[in-house]
Amino acid sequence: MMNNIYYFFVVLFCLFVFFLCWHRQKEVLKKHLQEFSVNHPDVPKIKILIAGQVGAGKSSFINSVNNAFRGRITSEALVDQSSGKSFTKIRGADGDLPFVLTDIMGLEPNVLEGSQPEDIINAIYGHVKDEYKFKEGEPLSHKSEDYISDPLLSDQAFCLVYVVNANTIQYASDRLVDKLRIIRKRISDKRIPQVIIMTKVDEACPLVYDDLKKVYTSKSVKEKMHLCSEMIGVPMNCIFPVKNYHNEIEVDNDVDVLILKAFDQIVNFEKCVNK
């Protein structure tokens, strides 16, 4: 009887420590990111390019990063699921932080829809002027006045973040996967990190829907990550499951922790590349 009571309190204590540690992670991650500094005189802020299909959650991810840092719901990145006309508007995670998040019109499977691989590659290398409106089926020409032929180091993106929907990754067409592989092959030679943000994981697993803290132990989420890794060729440790803010009116600690964990890992890639 005494042993049962002892083990009960041990388990209870472990659960308490787990939830306390999870709660404290948010402030630890925020502090780490707020203290980050760019170690290059010509680069005041690091630029991160966000790409993905229409409705995958690009703008929502940018807003979620803002929410996590500011402690309130924001909507700086406009979400347009109907047309996916996401232009290259520079949006910082926070005004005082050295991060710039840039999104691009949805990458679609059909040849004449959405942004093309060449558009994304040009944007990564800094050849695209801010506020340029991408055109479906018409990649930016090097002859265009919106093309920067000799970009500065600060114009270039140090990392490509591709946003995918956990609920639809298994239905991704071969054309879309081919586009992603083309981009991956073209920028890998330049040692540009490529990561995947897997959104809507709460909808992919009932256990995670009830408790986001179970995302890393969810078999369903892990299977989605494996599938994504095999299809696109991105290693498992470069795929980060998150839940974006969508219709919430207040911030949530568990949502913030997943968002900040993913963003912290993205920023860590910058350190590895620029050692």
UniProtKB/TrEMBL annotation:
Gene3D superfamilies: P-loop containing nucleotide triphosphate hydrolases (3.40.50.300). Coiled coil: none annotated. The chain crosses the membrane at residues 6-22. Keywords: Membrane, Transmembrane, Transmembrane helix. GO terms for biological process: immune response. This is Interferon-induced protein 44-like. It comes from Cyprinus carpio.
